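Thread: "does anyone have the structure for this chain?"

Original post by V.I.:
We have the sequence but no experimental structure in hand. Need at least a predicted one for the grant figures.
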Amino acid sequence: MSIKKTDFPLALCMIQPEPCPGSYRNTGMSFQEVMDISIKEVEMIQNTGFDGYIIQNRNDAPVKQMASPETIAYMSVLSYELKRRFPNMIQGILIDWDGVASLAVADAVHADFIRIEHTYTGMEVGYAGLMHAQCVDVCMMRKRLGSRVPVYADVQEIHYEQIGGKKIVDAAWDSVQNAFADGLFIGGRTTEESMQIYHDVRKRLGDDVPLFLSAGSNGDNIREILTCYDGVSVGTWVKNGNMNNPIDPEKARIFMDGVKEARRLRNNR
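Reply from O.Q.:
Generated one for you, tokens below.
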């Protein structure tokens, strides 16, 4: 699989495995058990109609910006197994919070893209301290490997504090024009703010750069969101408000009903 503009809008789901061995929150669950749970979740969202998923080791928190060797190893094996079992689903890789590790894993397992959430350009501060731009290191690894894995970058992720005060439209332009991101994840704290951000960024960048909603999609707003956005990655809402929960199959179904309606409306414009 690969991401094609003709496939837009895309509905992706966040797959966030149980804490892997070696992480602070792992309480003895084996890696095989972690894999089995993730495989069942991906199977469920495939049957529900999702186009794909982003696999993220969110439950390995707390983490610094550079991933540990064991995290990279476990995520490589899990991502490979999911890609093998579900070859027709789009696969994104997000290793918290290490874009270089994400690219290495994605290139090795032939994933369809990586998402770099903290941080591709600029600088942020959060619970683990400063997060520095990774664009130079990611670009250099792409060059060394000859990698064609697309890089989708979050622009000013809303859960961390941005340093520097650059406007999101300017940061988006910077991510594409100076740091060579292939697509962007953008969004605000409300549906209205997210829609305005989309229009502002689209006006600045033109029509060629894919724009995905970074956060905040739900069963109530997905029809409106997909009138414009090229795709979404849903997590919190289908997990009943807590990212540590498993995906609720009924919530996933409701969400995809909204996606299908949005596609119908979009195609009839």
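V.I.: this helps a lot. DSSP finds eight helices and eleven strands in the chain.
O.Q.: and The longest strand covers residues 10-15.
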